Amino acid sequence: MKKSILYAAIAVCFTACQNRSPEQKIDSLAEATDTGTVKTKACYAYIKNRDTVLLSFNTAGHTIAGSLSNNLFEKDKNSGTIAGLIKGDTIIADYTATGEGMTSVTQVAFLRKGDQLLEGYAPTTEKNGKQVFTSISELKFGTSLVLSAIPCK
After folding, report:
1. How far apart are CA 122 and CA 135, in angstroms?
2. How much is the pLDDT for 5?
3. pLDDT of the residue at 36
């Protein structure tokens, strides 16, 4: 009797975890504390013609926190902080940016390929005051904005 209750409880937990959306899985991963992890720093840059993007962040376990600056030719310059999660080779983070006197929060994604980060794109929607991907599973990682590892200052 006790074993069947235990198996039923495990099945319910497993099913509940599997039915979460990708965003819920990422949110629940952020809530997990990772004690005793080593913190590392990484820095990346994209510099081409008149465009410059700089990204630096610290990692601790599956979490990242750092700064991102976008200075793209004929676009509004913005800079701010990122905070998010690393899942496998993918970074999903919130980018809180200030540009032209306005502050906004946008979800960003990067795919790690060797010593490069490819920026991810997908349809977005506004949710709770920030722009988020409508579906993490629809992310496409192209070659238009590829950041390369650089030495951190």
Report:
1. 8
2. 33
3. 54
pLDDT band at 126 (very low <50, low <70, confident <90, very high): very high
Q: Helix/strand/coil (H, E, C) string of the chain?
A: CHHHHHHHHHHHHHHHHHCCCHHHHHHHHHHCCCCCCCEEEEEEEEEECCEEEEEEEEEECCEEEEEEEEECCCCCCEEEEEEEEEECCEEEEEEEEEECCEEEEEEEEEEEECCEEEEEECCEEEECCEEEECCHHHCEEEEEEEEEECCCC
The domains of the chain are located at 35-149
Q: Which whole-number Å values give the CA distances from 67 to 43, 125, 139, 150, in the listed order?
A: 10, 23, 22, 14
Contacts for 117 with CB less than 8 Å, ≥ 6 apart: 44, 55, 91, 110, 111, 146, 147
pTM strictly above 0.90: no
Contact 122, 133 (CB under 8 A): yes
